[in-house]
């Protein structure tokens, strides 16, 4: 393909993957105003974020078999239309309960972008190019947190938080046009893929029996849940504890997002010298160390606003390295079940993010401890899973070889 076609595909796939991150980040500066307008509290408004993450978790499992059965584009169009309708519902809501419900359906529609973008990478690019392409898509995704909260803060200040959702609906409408005119179809519909519950579960079980998928999807899911602890707690930490304005919060969010942009570019160059497994192990180790220092620093009051932002910047640089490499290694063993594998991987990531965000909300104590503790825990547990999982698989392989040699001798 030409360089122009390649750029278009990366931009469209990246835009699809950013539908949900944009939907999460853009309305964060509006939390205090939403709470005031809907006569509720910020912790209840945070449930709309949790509802969104639960919707993504459920929706991705549903879209996996649909993408394998009907091809990539038909389920994609259907999901994005649901997203547009739910976004309009969010804009018109008059209660926090209705907002939570509309956010759930917004996620059900929007998460098709996450699943389909990953499946299309496997369809359209060779195995040796996928980690690089995932890295480029992660770069596009990483730009969204720089833009979304900043734009959301100014939109909320100028027009009100409702307009955030109208703008999101308009963005997705433009993405639909780009998909129709510029994005290749990818894998064609496969009538042999059954949508009966028994067959769908069987497809998922085939994926889950693959050790490489299980290790890297589990470790990668927890590692990529760390930013959700930051997302869930950052508006309260920065706006209520450190008393920054909506616009200032948007700029802080944008600055921290730059950490991920730099690391995605670094990943592009590191892949020329190191393999994905080496990069993941090193990154999780350094994130675990930095995360521990974050917890200690907040607990002992070492940090002011600026040093806290600096430490979080250092921690978040790892997200641009773990995400694309764990995605590539998770999906590498599959051809026929790519859609189901993408769905399970994405569902677990968002499910882990939802759990982490709920924990941050439950542990809310007017300090930054719940946020940074969950960030550190995600990296530490991911590192343990990676080493234990690989050691177990390697031991099983060695035992199988020994048994084979003994049977030959006998």
> What's the total helix number?
17
**What's the gyration radius in Å?**
21 Å
Largest sheet geometry: none
Outline type: globular
Residue fraction in strands: under 5%
Q: What structural class is derived from the secondary structure elements?
A: mainly alpha
Proportion in helices: over 70%
| CATH H-level superfamily | MFS general substrate transporter like domains
Number of separate strands: 0
Mean pLDDT: 83
By CATH, the topology is Growth Hormone, Chain: A
Number of domains: 1
Do you know the CATH architecture?
A: Up-down Bundle
List low-pLDDT spans.
Answer: 400-410
Sketch the topology as an H/E string, one letter per element: HHHHHHHHHHHHHHHHH
Measured distance between first and last alpha carbons: 55 Å
CATH class: Mainly Alpha
Main location: membrane
Transmembrane segments: 45-64, 76-94, 100-121, 133-155, 161-183, 213-231, 251-271, 283-302, 308-331, 343-363, 369-388
GO molecular function: sodium:proton antiporter activity; xenobiotic transmembrane transporter activity
Pfam families: MFS_1 (PF07690)
Which short descriptors sum up this protein?
MFS; 410 residues; mainly alpha; Growth Hormone, Chain: A; 17 helices; sodium:proton antiporter activity; transport; 0% strand; MFS_trans_sf; disordered C terminus; xenobiotic transmembrane transporter activity; 83% helix
